[in-house]
Specification:
alpha+beta, Thiol Ester Dehydrase, Chain A, 3 helices, HotDog_dom_sf
Length: about 130
């Protein structure tokens, strides 16, 4: 992928209303590799005053989509998703990365993880994506 496409891709994701709402931004982006980050904020807390699992799941899902699209000019949709929460979060900044498990023609299995700003594993996920028709 050329730099023009990667710049466009970063802007496309960062301009999304959902990413803006969650405070998600690109931390690193190159062909086939990406890292996103999200500062933990009070409006993302559950009733126990820990980061809501949905916020973490959003990071896990988002990074897989970004990673796929950083190496192919395609649109994708999540068709299955399985998450594992490892540690609770109250504050700080979270970082997410992902990798392709197998490069299929129609289905793309992925894995992702979220760590905090201390390097502590927060959650992992495995998912499958399908390519959308243009």
């Amino acid at each position: 992928m050329d730099n023009e496409y990667l710049t466009w891709l970063q802007n496309d994701f960062e301009d999304s209303p959902f990413w803006k709402h969650m405070g998600i931004s690109m931390d690193y982006l190159s062909e086939g590799e990406a890292r996103i980050k999200m500062p933990v904020s009070q409006n993302q807390m559950n009733c126990n005053q820990y980061l809501h699992g949905g916020a973490i799941t959003s990071l896990l899902d988002s990074i897989m989509g970004v990673t796929i699209r950083s190496s192919r000019d395609v649109k994708v949709a999540t068709i299955s998703f399985n998450s594992h929460f490892v540690a609770p979060v109250k504050d700080g900044v979270l970082y997410a990365t992902a990798n392709v498990v197998h490069s299929g023609k129609r289905i793309l299995p992925m894995e992702s993880k979220v760590i905090d700003d201390q390097g502590r594993l927060i959650a992992t996920a495995s998912a499958a994506f399908t390519f959308l028709k243009k």
